[in-house]
Amino acid sequence: MALRARALYDFRSENPGEISLREHEVLSLCSEQDIEGWLEGVNSRGDRGLFPASYVQVIRAPAAEPPPPARYANVPVGGFEPLPPPAAFKPAAQQPPPEPFPPPPAGYPFPPYGGSYQPSQGSDDDWDDDWDDSSTVADEPGALGSSYPDYEAAGGSASGRYRLSTRSEPSLGPRGAGHPPGHPHPPGGGGAAKSSATVSRNLNRFSTFVKSGGEAFVLGEASGFVKDGDKLCVVLGPRGPEWQENPYPFQCSIEDPTKQTKFKGMKSYIAYKLVPSHTGQQVHRRYKHFDWLYGRLAEKFPVISVPHLPEKQATGRFEEDFISKRRKGLAWWMDHMCSHPVLAQCDAFQHFLTCPSTDEKAWKQGKRKAEKDEMVGANFFLTISVPTGPGASLDLQEVESQVDGFKAFTKKMDESALQLNHTANEFARKQVTGFKKEYQKVGHSFKCLSQAFELDQQAFSAGLNQAIAFTAEAYDAIGDLFAEQPRQDLDPVMDLLALYQGHLANFPDIIHVQKGALTKVKESKRHVEEGKMELQKAEGIQERCNIISFATLAEINHFHKIRVRDFKSQMQHFLQQQILFFQKVTQKLEEALHKYDSV
């Protein structure tokens, strides 16, 4: 029988991941085992999340009670009438006040609420049995990276490994009070000794700051070995922090999408030919390979905007228009991947570009190695190397101001991109249907006039009849030009907007990680001022926050740099295509005009 509990008190959720309770409400528990004073369950309104264990009483079912009939197995939680209170239940007024409760621990296995990327498993390029076997050959030395030694050489000795840790100071564990805002703290907490004060953990364990590992890193809980090739360097450029440029820049074309089959024709898929410029060797990849790579990169790089892939489609996957549109979207995606100094050099991306299409064993070795990457979560931040020395430190107030300014910029850009996309889409629709129809109606009218004039058998009117008939054909052709034009100018603009809308959707999480780190710094400074924390411990928190701030500002600068490049190029292309289009229209009209010269 499902575990249930009754709320003893009202509880109002104050953080994402928590749910509100009403007194006497019956809840369904995910587990009776509380995690440091918190339980997870579903309330009568169907909301799932955390609530304090001291605010509820578990409903104990009688031992002899039979299990419910199977036909009720699918009834949703909250669909039953609340049970009458058990005999041992006391009114809320008679209950003792709830005991203090700390937040859940960092290692608690929460369900995957939003945020983290889950590779899609839809009908578009379903995963095959030959994709995921039980092989662990990725542990073999040289399974990944041997096909592109230049990239290892660029970062230094690939065999060099350095142990980095943020645990040199006492552990900054969960705060002693651990109360959500508005709830009483245990007595005696304010008189703690300086050495025992800690920076609190976020109550919302579902936040990006927590799930990305940013909180654990800032609080000094990250530890791991970092290879030279894993280091991500931030340098100071003319516009501030920047990612160190890729010493071996390259591009990669995506060409010739072809329909292929397997299992004797039972399964069909589209394969794309990729030709990286730094190898010159073509490989073929399916959409599921792109999807896997995106998932790995989105998980590994919490402060980098990994470009979104073109959307999946359940039906019409083999239609020519869809294949062409997806190829163009993947080309934009590949351009942004190759242009990013960090993503372009990532081992998983290089494996994706260089592993021969026919070597299934090598592909699975690289895939397994990428999935076992230890430099993720809190350990990822250990790989970031930032400038040191005089003039290299960041002013946190200035950083906060820059990030707030960028946040306002992304919001406005997102709104403008949505508006432009809607306008362009509507205008393209009018060109394909409305404008074409209207011009061809004009052409048809001229044609009818010409046919009427042909009833006159006088020789001197023949030239005029032919000229009017030519004019009708010109307007009919202009209608076709309008219908074909969006492919040349508006569609590329909308493809670019779609790519940037993906980037703009990434930045709230990136900013949230940086904001979370700044909050910890402010809290540690307050503890130092109150004499509750040693200055050395607070300085360690600020130093780690600086690393996240350097990375965030470097990503913001890269976004602006690539944005200027892309929109300059695309606007030039749009206007050039518009000029060519109206030149074609003008040419048609001039040809029709000249027909009247000989009348």
Overview in brief:
The protein has 599 residues and is of the alpha+beta class. It contains 11 helices and 13 strands. Helix 8 packs antiparallel against helix 10 and helix 8 packs parallel to helix 11.
Describe the model.
The protein has helices spanning 149-154, 208-211, 214-218, 287-300, 320-339, 347-354, 360-371, 396-453, 462-484, 490-529, 535-594, and strands at 4-7, 26-29, 38-42, 48-52, 56-59, 161-165, 223-227, 232-237, 240-243, 252-262, 267-276, 283-286, 384-385. With 599 residues, the chain is of the alpha+beta class. Among the domains are: 4-59, Roll (SH3 type barrels); 243-385, PX Domain; 396-595, Up-down Bundle (Substrate Binding Domain Of Dnak, Chain:A, Domain 2). The chain is elongated. The N and C termini lie far apart (95 Å).
Large-scale geometry: elongated
The CATH homologous superfamily of the domain at 396-595 is termed Arfaptin homology (AH) domain/BAR domain
Beta strands, count? 13
| Helicity, as a percent range | 40-55%
CATH class identity of the domain at 396-595: Mainly Alpha
Number of helices: 11
**Main beta-sheet annotation:** 5 strands, antiparallel
Mean pLDDT: 78
Query: If you compute it from the alpha carbons, what radius of gyration comes out, rounded to the nearest whole angstrom?
Result: 32 Å
Q: So, CATH architecture of the domain at 396-595?
A: Up-down Bundle
Widest beta sheet: strand line-up: 4-3-2-1-5
- How far apart, in Å, are the first and last alpha carbons? 95 Å
Protein name: SNX18 protein
Keywords: Cell cycle, Cell division, Cytoplasmic vesicle, Endocytosis, Membrane, Mitosis, Protein transport, SH3 domain, Transport
Membrane topology: Peripheral membrane protein
Region (Disordered): 85-197
